[in-house]
Amino acid sequence: MKLFELIEDTSYRLTGYAGPDRFEQEIRRVTADRREAGEGVLFVCADFALGDGHNSAHAAYALGSRVFLAERELPLPDDATVLVVEDTKRLLGALAARCYGYPARSLTVFGITGTAGKSAIAHTVTALLRRAGRSVASLTTDGVDLNGELRPADCIVPNAADIQALLREFLETGVEFAVLEFSSYMLANHAQTAIPFAALLLSNFAPAHIGEGQHKDFAAYRAAKASLFEGGAPFLVFPANFADFSVPKRGEKRLLFGEGGHLQALDAVPVIEKRSFGTRFTLCLENGEKEQIFLPVPGDNAVKNALAAAALALIAGLSLKEVATGLCAYAPLGRLECVGTYEGRYVFVDSAYTGQDLERALDTLCPYTEGRLSVLIGSVGGRTRERRAFLGKAAGTHADFVYLTADNPDCEDARGICEEIMRGMQDPSRCCIVPDRRRAIERAVLEMRPGDTLLLAGKGGEAYQLIRGRKERFCEREIVAAVLGEM
What we know:
Blueprint: H1 3-6, E1 13-16, H2 20-23, E2 29-31, E3 41-44, E4 47-48, E5 51-52, H3 57-62, E6 67-70, E7 81-84, H4 88-99, E8 108-113, H5 118-131, E9 136-140, E10 143-146, E11 149-152, H6 160-172, E12 177-181, H7 184-188, E13 199-202, H8 218-226, E14 235-239, E15 253-257, E16 263-273, E17 276-285, E18 290-295, H9 300-315, H10 320-329, E19 337-342, E20 345-350, H11 355-365, E21 373-377, H12 387-398, E22 401-404, H13 414-422, E23 431-433, H14 437-446, E24 453-457, E25 464-467, E26 470-473, H15 476-485
Parallel strand pairs: 2-3, 3-6, 6-7, 8-12, 8-13, 9-12, 13-14, 14-15, 20-24, 21-22, 21-24, 22-23
Antiparallel strand pairs: 1-7, 4-5, 9-10, 10-11, 16-17, 17-18, 19-20, 25-26
């Protein structure tokens, strides 16, 4: 697409080179990532948490970009064209969508947000649709699932242009359905721009992610989540206890899941057997249709996530029987997933990284534990220090023993992070610090006895450790398997 076509309805002030040949230039990509700059690339200077793109303009120029969208004039050579606008982040998605031919218009796109459960729901919906023969891809905090292969996420949260490029890739590979997870950070930066959603879903909502470097208060956090629903969609899906979520009705169909909703789980009971963990319940629709489900994941939250995923799958056209068959066969990666068993010892992994999530995970595992319930935790370095004491309090209150260790410490000292977590514990004698996560896992597994349960918390499906700015491969499943194999 030529530059003049791309920006034809954009209000801007032109600085720098203004020759007619520049406006005839073909633009093949729109990006806010300097690594993707180059000839024929419109570089958008957007101010994100990881850095202000205006400071990357020289690097983008050096890679070949000559057209820039910015909120102020840029000190670039005379052959650079700078379009000065009021808000680059608001334009980023719209320009990228136009550049790529509006790929979302040819896809059925589901958007998911909420405080917890987003990734688990997205993975489950993807699995249900794929099992039923639909072509589907997803974007979650775990990465991109395309054709059944997961491309792990890097350290940078995708912005609006990244998502439009991804949707184009989905379309070009024959995908019919796209399932997209949106964090509140993504929504606050307008990552949902220019996407005509078929359905939008709120997983749940609770006070979280508030504080330094996050949302300034609860109202701001709620507004960020609610912004996904402002553009409207034919279907909105909410938990029954958040039936409106302050979203005005515009004639869309609303589906509620959970007690009192259109989709309910009746007569739920935990299943505790030697080779089987999970929950058995009756999936019931408002019209009276029912299916028996054995969900191979323990806990009430897993059931709620399954109901949410079922709602989207039904919207996609699956029958209740297809949904039930899929739910019985799928356990989301890294969400209270049992990764090792040995003579009555059970090892689970979960992505819980806040005190509230950790409480929920430990309380779920408690009924499945005859002996000692232990947890291995750390906290991400370089941010959210205020959550560490709450982690310690939750671990010390809800587990019998705590192993404190590293969890993506980056440039922080892992032992120092562990000591901050320990300050939240009422009885520090029931914990130990092993800064090396591999050694901590090995020790925790070796110290288990028959009847014990061990939860490895924080990483879930991640397969890396972030240390001093570098990602190092780290797979907890492999470590657990190796230790159990030698027992």
